[in-house]
Specification:
Helices cover about 35% and strands about 15% of the residues. With about 210 residues, it is an alpha+beta fold. The N and C termini lie far apart (about 50 Å).
Length: about 210
C-alpha cells in the first residue's frame, strides 16, 4: 500500500531502464543528461492505477478532458491524463519532440559500447584522482556501483574557490560538492569526452588542491 516515487534523473541513456519491471508508481527521468536530448526534455511515468492521484500545477488547454475517465484514449491515442499534463501554457515543445531522434541516434551508434567506454574513462579518472589525494573511495570499483558518473572524495578544501578556479584558470566545469563537512568532485563522462579531457582535470586538481586546502 506504499506509493513509490522514483527520481531517476540520471538513468535514461546511462543505465538500462524497464519501467514495467521496476514496478514504481511514479517515475521521473531526464532526457537531456545522458540521452543527448536538449535541456528541458524529460518524462513523468505514472501507473494507470495511480494517475488519478496527480493533477498539474499549471492548468491549460486539456485540463478539463471530454472523457470522464483518465484511462480512456482519444482519437490521437492520448489519454486525458496526458492531455492534462502535457500542455502547461504557451511554451516551446521542440525539446520534447527531439527525444525520438535522440533514441534513434544512440541506437545507430552502438551506445552500449559508448557507455562502456565512458565507464572506463570515469574509472580512469576515479583511480587517478584517488592516487592524487590518497583518499579511500566511497564505493567499490564496479560498474554495479557507478556507470558514467563517479563521485570522488577530495581532501579538505575551499570547494567554492576550487570550482571557480577550475573554470577560470583551466576552463573545466565540474561539480564540487560539500556534504557532511566533506568535499567531493563529481566526474561525468559522456560520449563526446576523451581521455585528454580527464587528464586536463587531473592536472588542474594536482595544481590547485594544495592552493585551496583548508
Amino acid at each position: 500500500g506504499i506509493i513509490t516515487i522514483v527520481d531517476g534523473a540520471h538513468v535514461p541513456g546511462q543505465i538500462p531502464l524497464d519501467l514495467e519491471a521496476l514496478g514504481a508508481d511514479f517515475y521521473a527521468g531526464n532526457c537531456h543528461k545522458w540521452l543527448n536530448s536538449p535541456k528541458g526534455s524529460a518524462f513523468l511515468y505514472a501507473r494507470k492505477e495511480v494517475q488519478p492521484l496527480l493533477e498539474p500545477l499549471v492548468v491549460s488547454w486539456g485540463w478539463q478532458p471530454e472523457s470522464s475517465t483518465l484511462l480512456s484514449l482519444d482519437s490521437n491515442g492520448s489519454s486525458p491524463f496526458v492531455l492534462q499534463h502535457e500542455w502547461q501554457g504557451t511554451r516551446d515543445i521542440a525539446a520534447y519532440l527531439s527525444v525520438p531522434a535522440a533514441i534513434e541516434f544512440e541506437a545507430e551508434h552502438d551506445w552500449p559500447r559508448v557507455r562502456q567506454e565512458c565507464h572506463e574513462l570515469a574509472r580512469y579518472a576515479r583511480q587517478a584522482i584517488g592516487e592524487l589525494t590518497g583518499l579511500e573511495q566511497i564505493c567499490p570499483d564496479s560498474p554495479e556501483w557507478y556507470a558514467q558518473m563517479a563521485t570522488i572524495p577530495l581532501p579538505s578544501c575551499d570547494a567554492e574557490e576550487l570550482k571557480r578556479r577550475l573554470y577560470d584558470e583551466y576552463r573545466v566545469e565540474v561539480p564540487i560538492i560539500e556534504w557532511n563537512s566533506r568535499q567531493f568532485i563529481r566526474v561525468s563522462v559522456q560520449g563526446y569526452n576523451a581521455k585528454g579531457d580527464l587528464d586536463a582535470l587531473i592536472s588542474a586538481l594536482a595544481a590547485l588542491l594544495p592552493q585551496v586546502a583548508c
